[in-house]
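Q: TNT domain-containing protein, please. Structure only.
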Amino acid sequence: MCSMYPDRALGKYMELIRTNAPMPDDMRVRFGEIAPAFEQPGGGMQYVFEEFNENTGVFDMVSLEFLLGKDYLRKV
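A: Structure for TNT domain-containing protein:
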């Protein structure tokens, strides 16, 4: 996971918090420290929510809209 392109660093962003809604067993969350890149310092944390796709046998990224709609995350 690496830093954003410099032209996106000043764009809109959203603060989110994890709710107590239980996540299904077929979902996972990967996370890690953001590495420096594109002349940006990095250092923050990045999270990727994924859901197991039975048709392909791999995990697919889940959209922010899905996470908000299922109440796994909410806006601060």
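A: Brief note, in case it's useful. Residues 16 and 74 are 5 Å apart (CA to CA).
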